[in-house]
UniProtKB/TrEMBL annotation:
Residues 280-351 form the Ubiquitin-activating enzyme SCCH domain. GO terms for molecular function: ATP binding; metal ion binding; SUMO activating enzyme activity. Residues 254-280, 559-613 are annotated as: Disordered. Zn(2+) binds at C162, C165, C430, C433. Pathway: Protein modification; protein sumoylation. Residues 574-585, 600-613 have a biased composition (Basic and acidic residues). Residues 440-531 form the Ubiquitin/SUMO-activating enzyme ubiquitin-like domain. Coiled coil: none annotated. Residues 9-405 form the THIF-type NAD/FAD binding fold domain. This is SUMO-activating enzyme subunit. Belongs to the ubiquitin-activating E1 family. GO terms for cellular component: cytoplasm; SUMO activating enzyme complex. InterPro entries: ThiF/MoeB/HesA, ThiF_NAD_FAD-bd, UAE_UbL_dom, Ub-E1_IAD_1, Ub_act_enz_dom_a_sf, Uba2, UBA_E1_SCCH, Ubiquitin-activating_enz.
Length: 613
């Protein structure tokens, strides 16, 4: 029996032949990438190339199902190819263990594909692929998940918005003074505990002033447990007592000076509470250990045992440690330290290991089912592109697809676990896919070219290898290998220019700089507007999108944590958010008019569901 007979019955011979002849690039072989590659070969797509720089970690095995224990440490792309070929040996898959930024994956490489499928885990890589697709005119389909939510977007130059038409959410930061002296949430305490980990076991960082351990480091200790007890005494007892003295000195402000309304309290310490065997006994608890919140006694014993173990590890390795959410000892140390900090400041929200991992690792936990659903949507949208008869508009039948496997929104009084939205048009103010014309206001007399290149070109515009022209004069060219050859005359000129103010280089008010990116075939015109009031480290940027990106959960973006693994936050534009709220209000008014009977009927109304095998 023909293995493709069922697919031919669905799509027909003509479309199926086009699917088999098409050439697809998959970028990323992680949680979504594994599901995607499997779906492609089972759907009849035979010509596939996949790129991923990562190697397989044991923490990937619970959701990246193409990998097994024996594959740990090997290339994700290579192993994904080998496993996928077992699903369909007829597939022609080329796997590349490398960076998408590599010069071997340049414009000529991209031009050979019909569609590029993104299964990436970070914004910067998505931006790069977006610009490569814009430069070559290739359709890009991007998929991402955030916990139980996911979204698929299709992009074609000139017809839809590009990936950068809307500003992407940035990681939230916290004031060190709040974290150190007056935390109000468990998140503050987790951030503090990560800093404590780095201070005790990581590289020396003068900016990390979480506590002063110089005297403690210089003391001799009987053993690692003795070191751990001294750390405990300092951070959870002595430092807290110093803070309580502030309350006594400012008795008239004691009700307002602390976020909790109470002065911080030292953690009680005794031989009984410091028993390091407590954690072992806790394993018999019926609750899943990783999702169980430890008692105060367990937090104390976990802190002491893990602090001692990490101290032993650093001493034996004679090297600094860095926090890794998949390092059990490091994660347990941070969990215990954060919970003890919560006790100090009367924060009634201690966290389990599972919760701490999500926050400390700055991720929304990856859900295998979400990855599977989004990977399926990616293949559906890909097939729409391949089926397009209009070569100029390949995304005419594509939609932005959003999936909610938990708490789906209501549309027309029905829950909508999956729903589609029209593809947004290009943003005329996007500096990537539109005019590529931006205005930067700064103090040209004080701003050095080095600051302009790093802050404006590299960080704001996201260029990788910028070249800066003033008329026909080349002011700066980025070295392709990341180094400057001092023996090269022009390289020395560029190096000297970096230390000069813009006005010294002839860049004056309303001057236009032409900027090219050597890595991507895209040019920008940057108009310089001089403002003598601005400090040398300030600038204003015009030409960026005005649309603020928010989470699809209708205003709940502040509750989300930036992700690192196979996730990308589901986003709506401000206009879409406003329309959704208006629709929600209209539905509420209608329910009120229809009365209680209508309410009862709506609760039993048939709803659309997502069926997952």
């Amino acid at each position: 029996m023909d293995r493709y007979s069922h697919i031919k019955q669905i799509y027909g011979d003509e479309l199926f032949n086009r699917m088999q002849k098409s050439k697809v690039l998959v970028v990323g072989a992680g949680g979504i990438g594994c599901e995607l590659l499997k779906n492609l070969v089972l759907s009849g797509y035979l010509n596939i190339e996949i790129i991923d720089l990562d190697t397989i970690d044991v923490s990937n095995l619970n959701r990246q199902f193409l990998f097994r224990q024996q594959h740990v440490g090997q290339s994700k792309a290579v192993i994904a190819k080998e496993t996928a070929l077992r699903f369909n040996p007829a597939a022609n898959i080329n796997a590349h263990h490398g960076s998408i930024y590599s010069s071997e994956f340049g414009l000529d490489y991209f031009r050979q594909f019909d569609v590029v499928l993104n299964a990436l885990d970070n914004v910067d890589a998505r931006r790069h692929v977006n610009r490569m697709c814009l430069a070559t005119g290739i359709v890009m389909i991007d998929g991402g998940t955030a916990g139980y939510r996911g979204q698929v977007n299709s992009y074609q130059k000139g017809l839809t918005e590009c990936y950068e038409c809307a500003t992407k959410a940035t990681q939230k930061t916290y004031a060190i003074c709040t974290i150190r002296s007056n935390p109000s949430t468990a998140v503050h305490c987790i951030v503090w505990s990560k800093l404590l980990f780095e201070r005790l076991f990581g590289k020396i960082d003068e900016a990390n002033s979480i506590s002063d351990f110089e005297i403690l480091f210089q003391e001799k200790h009987k053993n690692s447990l003795d070191f751990a007890r001294k750390v405990f005494e300092k951070v959870f007892v002595q430092d807290i007592k110093k803070l309580t003295e502030l309350t006594e000195e400012n008795a008239d402000k004691k009700d307002t000076m602390w976020n909790s309304g109470k002065a911080p309290e030292p953690v009680p310490f005794s031989d009984e509470t410091s028993n390091t065997n407590t954690a072992a006994a806790a394993a018999t608890d019926d609750a899943l250990e990783e999702q169980r919140v430890w008692s105060l006694q367990e937090n104390i014993s976990q802190f002491l045992s893990k602090c001692a173990a990490l101290h032993d590890r650093k001493t034996s390795q004679q090297s600094d440690l860095s926090f890794d959410k998949d390092d059990d000892e490091a994660l347990q140390f941070v969990t215990a330290a954060a919970n003890l900090r919560c006790f100090n400041f009367h924060i009634k929200d201690a966290k389990s290991i599972f919760d701490t991992k999500a926050i400390a690792g700055n991720i929304v936990p990856a859900i295998a089912t979400s990855n599977a659903v989004i990977a399926g949507m990616l293949v559906l949208e890909l097939t729409k592109v391949i089926s397009a008869h209009d070569s100029e508009n390949k995304v005419s039948s594509c939609r932005t697809l959003a999936g909610y496997l938990q708490d789906p929104p209501m549309l027309k009084r029905k829950k909508a676990p999956v729903f589609a939205m029209p593809l947004p048009p290009p943003n005329p103010k996007c500096f990537v896919c539109s005019s590529n014309y931006v205005t930067v206001t700064l103090n040209a007399k004080q701003t050095k070219l080095d600051y302009f290149v790093k802050r404006v070109l590299l960080e704001k515009l996201g260029l990788r290898e910028p070249m800066v022209y003033l008329g026909s004069k080349l002011l700066y060219e980025h070295s392709g290998d990341g180094s400057d050859d001092d023996d090269d005359e022009m390289a020395q000129v560029f190096k000297n220019n970096l230390n000069k103010n813009l006005t010294d280089l002839g860049v004056t008010d309303q001057c236009v700089l032409n900027v090219s990116d050597g890595a991507v075939d895209v040019d920008w015109s940057v108009r310089i507007s001089h403002d003598g009031v601005l400090d040398l480290d300030e600038f204003k940027f015009e030409g960026d999108t005005e649309s603020k990106v928010v989470a699809a959960a209708l205003g709940e973006d502040e509750k989300k944590i930036p992700e690192e693994d196979d996730d990308d936050m589901v986003v709506w534009t401000e206009d879409e958010k406003r329309k959704a709220k208006e629709n929600k209000q209209k539905r509420g008014l209608k329910r009120k008019r229809d009365g209680e009977e209508e309410e009862r009927q709506s609760k039993v109304a048939k709803v659309d569901v997502v069926e997952i095998d």
